[in-house]
Structure formats: C-alpha cells, structure tokens
B12 binding domain protein
Amino acid sequence: MDTLPSGVERAIENLRAEALDHGTRYIYDRIGEHLAPWGEAGRVRCRADLNWHLDFLLGAVAVGDPGPFVNYLSWLVDLMRSYGVPGDSVELSVEGLASVLRKRLSSEQWAEVAPILAAGIQSLASGGVASADAAGGIAPTHSTDSDVAPATRQQLMSALVAGDAVRASGIVSGVTRQCGYLRMAEGLVQPVMSAIGEMWQRREISVAQEHLASAVIQKLLVREFVNAPFADPVPRSVLLACVASNYHQLGLRILADAFELKGWSVEFLGGDTPTGDLVRHVESTRPDLVALSLSLGRQIPILKDVVAGIRERLGSGPPRIIAGGPGLTGLGFLCPRLGLDGCYPSVASVPDLGP
Ligand code: B12
C-alpha cells in the first residue's frame, strides 16, 4: 500500500540524485580544504547526510510545517559537533540543497519548500534548539511531576552504561515498589534512556553500550510488568505498531503495557511494521483504537500514509487513531493535518488511560 508521493514530493524524489551531487559539490567548493582529512569517505558521508536532509525535508513538506526539519537540524548540529565537523557545514549543505531545488522545482513547488528551508537556515543561524541534557540533569522529557529522585536516575544510567544488570535491576525494582510500574517506566526509564541517547550522540558511549543498555532495560521492564497489578478485562481493544522504518519499540511497549494493565485487549505489533500489512491488519481485526509510534521526523510521510490507508478502508468512524514518539516531539499541533484523533507526548497523557 506504499503510496507514491505526489506533487512537490514526487518532484523532490525525482531530483534526489541530482540534489545529492549538486549539494556535495556546493559544500566541497566552499570548505573542501577543511573536509580533506576525511578523504573520499568525507564525500560519501556528505551525500548520505544530504540524503537525510531530503528525507526530513519531505517529512516537513508532508505536514506543510518546518517543525520536523528544524528539529532534525538542531539534532544534527549537535551530532556533527561531536565528530569535529565544522558547524557551518550543515548550514552550507542546506543552502546547497536550496540552490538546486530553487532552480529545478516549478515556482508553485518552490513556494511550498522555500519557507521550510528558510526556517531551517534561520534556526541554524540562531544556534538551534538546546538539547534537554544541556538544560541540566536527567529530566523526564514529558512530565514534570516525577516521583523519581534525580540521583536515582543518575545511578540507573551509570549501571546501564556499565552493563551492570544486577545493580540496574535493584534500582528498577526499588522504584517500582515505591511508585508502581508505569510511573517507574515514565519517571525513571524514559529519561534515563533519553540521556543515554544523548551520550551516544556526543560519542561519550559506544553503540554497543547503548544496545546493551536497551537490552538490559527491556528485560527488567518485562519482569516488573508481569508482577504489576492487572485490572479486570474491559471490552476495549487497541492495536499498537511502530510505523515502517521505526525500530524504537520500547516506548510503545510501555503504552501497550499501560492498556493491558487497564484490562484492554492488546495487540502489539512491535517495530518497523510495513504500511500495507498494518492497514490490512487493522481492517481485519477492527480495534477500537490504533496507536502508532514514530521516532524520526522523516517517518511522518509514512504515518500519513498509514492513517490515510486506514481511513480509506474503514471510513471516518472507528478506530480512533493516535500517535506519539520522539518523531513528533513538540509537533503535537500537527495532529489534525495528519488525520489523527490525537498526538500525545507520553503514556500518562493519553486520555483513555486516565483514572
Ligand atoms: C534505544 C535506542 C535505539 C535502539 C532501539 C531499540 C529498541 N528495541 O527499541 C536502536 C539501536 C534500534 C536505535 C536505532 C536508531 N536510533 Co535510536 N535511540 C534509542 C534511545 C537511546 C532510547 C529509545 C528508548 O527506548 N527510549 C525510552 C522510551 C521509553 O522513550 P520514548 O521512545 O521516547 O517513548 C516515550 C514517548 O515518546 C511516548 N511514546 C512513544 N511512542 C508513542 C506512541 C503513542 C501513540 C503515544 C501516545 C506515546 C508514545 O511514550 C513513551 C514513554 O514515555 C533514543 C534516545 C531517546 N531520546 O529516546 C535514541 C534516538 C531516538 N535514536 C536516534 C537515532 C538517530 C537512531 C538511528 C538513526 C541511529 C543510526 N544512525 O542508526 C537509528 C534509527 C533506527 C530506526 N530507523 O528507527 C535519535 C533520534 C534523533 C532525532 N531527533 O531525530 C535518538 C533521540 C538518540 C539521539 N539523542 O540522538 N535507537
């Protein structure tokens, strides 16, 4: 069911190879001497980065708002800094893309894309958005009323980064005893995993350490979940899936757990669910609610396709469709443009799970 892009999206897709060539030349013509130490690998990396730019640009085009592109650039600048890549190279690369798109898109198409690129360039010029960690400590990304002491989060982070599953287990169990499974998951695990992501981004830990931390925490969550108190079953059903190309399933798993603890009938499809299969599954199982997760703004067009596919097959009645995840951080206001019934930054903020 993977629908073909139309209009400006299709035009950008058709220009992709040319835009990558042009953008790479544009950068090397201007700061090639600074990039020389990376040799040929630098050019390959540069093309790959431009490819990502286009994907996130398409995410923004899909909703007619610069938000997904601006968020991405802000993250990218931090990442580049940790690799010692000159800060202005990101700005140059966006300018390079802008110069080729301005020339090759029609004036109507360019009018859709220009404000997004301009907002991106402007955000880079003003230094981007500060990361949560730069604001100090390991704070929950979504809620402010966490029961978990900052020192406890710090201890869990150190244990996970050291791969010390026994120490991590003691901390997670202690917090669950204190405040219950869901408050532990959102007040402790979510902010700690977010901080671990930032350490990876700054190259303070390796990919292997991040993978180990994820694997350990997933096991500990399962253990706490099976021992949590379950409500009696209720006649409500929810289907949860990460959209295609989203491999981040831990957050959605916690949402699935929250519904299960409330007595809902739950189907959790996990990461990277192909759009066509997802839509067909919704059509055959007819859940009351569909909950979708995306981790990157480049997945917004995929989310849009899933929602359109479900509506096309089942009309505008049930199921309700909601979405969340890091790919929508700060972008909840775009929910109507995506055809969604709700966008929520956290499990605790989903109204169906309220008291
Ligand atoms: C673990 C991890 C991975 C693991 C995921 C393993 C797994 N089985 O889930 C792996 C190794 C696969 C991975 C891969 C990548 N990752 Co990663 N990853 C993370 C990390 C460190 C933790 C994710 C996590 O589990 N968080 C804990 C959960 C509980 O939090 P959560 O996901 O935010 O979910 C909460 C809410 O968002 C919300 N929620 C989530 N979904 C939904 C849905 C609904 C309906 C609702 C209501 C709410 C909701 O509720 C949850 C509970 O509060 C994050 C850092 C971070 N900030 O989260 C980076 C992070 C998300 N990854 C990132 C990146 C860049 C990548 C890669 C591109 C890296 C690469 N070069 O390959 C790939 C992309 C893979 C893909 N295509 O999806 C970036 C994204 C940057 C950005 N802003 O765009 C982050 C932010 C790291 C960083 N700081 O740079 N990653």
Observations:
- The chain has twelve helices and five strands.
- Residues 72, 75, 142, 186, 189-190, 193-194, 196-198, 201, 210-211, 214, 245-252, 254-255, 291-293, 295-296, 322-326, 344, 346-347, 350 surround cobalamin (CB under 6 Å).
